[in-house]
Design goal:
- The chain has a two-stranded antiparallel sheet.
- The protein is built from 5 helices and 2 strands.
- By secondary structure, the chain is mainly alpha-helical.
């Protein structure tokens, strides 16, 4: 994750509007002096996934603990690695998302060629 989002990529259709509507830019502005945009995008993405997880808000000992053992939020927090550099351009990301119209063959190709090649 390098913080680069190609808003012209068909897989990212609607992301620009979503970012504007959710005030994500203003939220980043509050933290831009201590975290890169690339790290912030990962943090925001993981926070969204944790918040919508069925493990969010686990109640322990009569109190709600978002970071209780077994929660996705705790897993993300404990495994977070910071220090990503924010990329200015996205050429290296072209073709990394499978085309749903090409089915499983494209999914296998994308993962085989990009994710599991090392």
């Amino acid at each position: 994750m390098d913080g680069c989002v190609d808003f012209n990529d068909k897989d990212n259709k609607g992301i620009r509007e979503c970012i504007q509507e959710t005030n994500l830019i203003e939220a980043y502005d509050e933290h831009c002096d201590v975290v890169s945009l690339a790290d912030f995008i990962v943090i925001a993405s993981e926070a969204t996934m944790a918040r919508t997880s069925n493990t969010f808000g686990v109640e322990q000992l009569g109190q709600t603990d978002s970071y209780a053992d077994g929660t996705l939020a705790k897993t993300f927090r404990d495994q977070f690695k910071y220090g990503r550099a924010t990329a200015e351009t996205c050429e290296q990301n072209e073709g990394l998302m499978p085309d749903p119209e090409k089915g499983c063959d494209d999914i296998n190709s994308i993962f085989g060629n990009h994710l599991f090649k090392y």
